């Protein structure tokens, strides 16, 4: 019986190579793993996928467009390590009979912890104080606390709900807003569901947890950002494109909001000349919120299990 061709076009930086998940994957077919940069280029991505039937997608910089799918006509499954699908043309996949599966919830705890850490780092000015102290300064400017603040959570998927659970013991007042129907999710995690405009107006910290799709690109527009308090912080561990970049830069540079703590960006990696790097009221981390051993191992295992299920359902 011919073995399925399986390709991993984007294991850069490496997480799958050398893992126990790799051993499981190689038992399923003829596997090729590309662990060098280049999957962000369409021509190179097409070359790497070639005539494979299955792609295990590690990084969102590999974009599965209609053009890629047309060129790789034997592709039947894209198994994604992660929950985001904004780099995959789902309509084109559906039209071409390509199944797309992810690992929802695998990184929820880790990303939620990181969101809380970013909130505290911003409010308590930890990066700034650390830098000042290393320079020999003994700065004693006031810092802020999370207790007693209003935390607005935008999006109540697995990560948003976990943020609510972790934040509650700090003694915050929880507001929540969703891009679609709430269906009781806010009340279930101790939050009050309100329209996004009310959440932005009343929150001291706004934490983004929406899925990026055509309806949520630029969800925090210039007009919506203008509703935030001048003392408020924006935390984004979801996707950079959820926020109007120019409007955010303007709000930060003119101190229309207190600051932003960001793990995701419009272009990744963040360029050396990016103006965000120079702003003192910004906390930056390199899209690393879910990069823990537990998430890596568990998520990769789920991504391989999805391939196993696909092949089992096909009777192979």
* Count of β-strands: 12
Strand content: 15-25%
Rg from C-alpha positions? 21 Å
Instruction: Enumerate the spans where pLDDT stays under 50 for 5 or more consecutive residues.
Output: none
Instruction: Identify the CATH class of the largest domain.
Output: Alpha Beta
Query: Mind summarizing the main beta sheet?
Result: 7 strands, parallel
Order of helices and strands: EHEHEHEHEHHEHEHEHEHEHEEH
CATH topology of the largest domain: the name is Rossmann fold
- Largest beta sheet: strand ordering: 8-7-6-9-10-11-12
| CATH homologous superfamily caption of the largest domain | NAD(P)-binding Rossmann-like Domain
Description of the structure:
The chain has 316 residues and is an alpha/beta fold. The chain has 2 domains: 4-105 and 293-313, 3-Layer(aba) Sandwich (Rossmann fold), CATH 3.40.50.720; 108-284, NAD(P)-binding Rossmann-like Domain (Rossmann fold). Helix content is 34%, strand content 15%. A 7-stranded parallel β-sheet has the order 8-7-6-9-10-11-12, sandwiched between helices. Helix 1 (20-26) runs parallel beside helix 12 (293-313) and helix 5 (108-123) crosses helix 7 (158-167).
List the helices and strands and how they pair.
Layout: E1 4-8, H1 20-26, E2 29-33, H2 42-49, E3 54-57, H3 66-71, E4 77-80, H4 90-95, E5 99-101, H5 108-123, H6 126-134, E6 150-154, H7 158-167, E7 173-177, H8 185-188, E8 192-193, H9 196-202, E9 205-208, H10 222-225, E10 233-236, H11 245-253, E11 259-262, E12 282-284, H12 293-313
Parallel strand pairs: 1-2, 1-3, 3-4, 4-5, 6-7, 6-9, 7-8, 9-10, 10-11, 11-12
């Amino acid at each position: 019986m011919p073995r399925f061709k399986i390709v991993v076009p984007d294991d850069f930086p490496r997480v799958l190579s050398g893992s126990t998940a790799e051993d499981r994957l190689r038992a399923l077919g003829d596997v090729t793993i590309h662990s060098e940069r280049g999957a962000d280029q369409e021509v190179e991505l097409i070359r790497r996928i070639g005539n494979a039937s299955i792609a295990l997608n590690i990084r969102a910089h590999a974009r599965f467009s209609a053009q890629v799918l047309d060129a790789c006509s034997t592709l039947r499954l894209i198994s994604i390590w992660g929950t985001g699908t904004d780099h995959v043309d789902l309509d084109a996949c559906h039209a071409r009979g390509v199944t797309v599966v992810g690992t929802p919830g695998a990184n929820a705890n880790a990303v939620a912890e990181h969101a809380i850490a970013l909130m505290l780092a911003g409010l308590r000015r930890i990066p700034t104080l650390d830098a000042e102290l290393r320079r020999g300064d003994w700065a004693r400017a006031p810092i802020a606390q999370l207790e007693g603040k209003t935390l607005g959570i935008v999006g109540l998927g697995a990560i948003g709900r976990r943020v609510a659970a972790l934040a509650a013991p700090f003694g915050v007042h929880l507001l929540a807003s969703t891009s679609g129907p709430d269906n009781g999710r806010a009340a279930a995690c101790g939050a009050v569901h309100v329209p996004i405009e009310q959440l932005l107006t009343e929150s001291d910290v706004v934490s983004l947890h929406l899925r990026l799709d055509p309806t949520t690109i630029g969800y925090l527009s210039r007009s919506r950002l203008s509703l935030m308090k001048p003392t408020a912080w924006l935390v984004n561990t979801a996707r950079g494109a959820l926020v109007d970049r120019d409007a955010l830069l303007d709000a930060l540079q003119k101190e229309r909001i207190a600051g932003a703590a960001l793990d995701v960006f419009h272009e990744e990696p963040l360029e050396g000349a990016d103006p965000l790097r120079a702003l003192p009221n910004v906390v930056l981390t390199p899209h690393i919120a879910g990069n823990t051993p537990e998430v890596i191992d568990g998520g990769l295992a789920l991504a391989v299990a999805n391939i196993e299920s696909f092949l089992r359902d096909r009777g192979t």
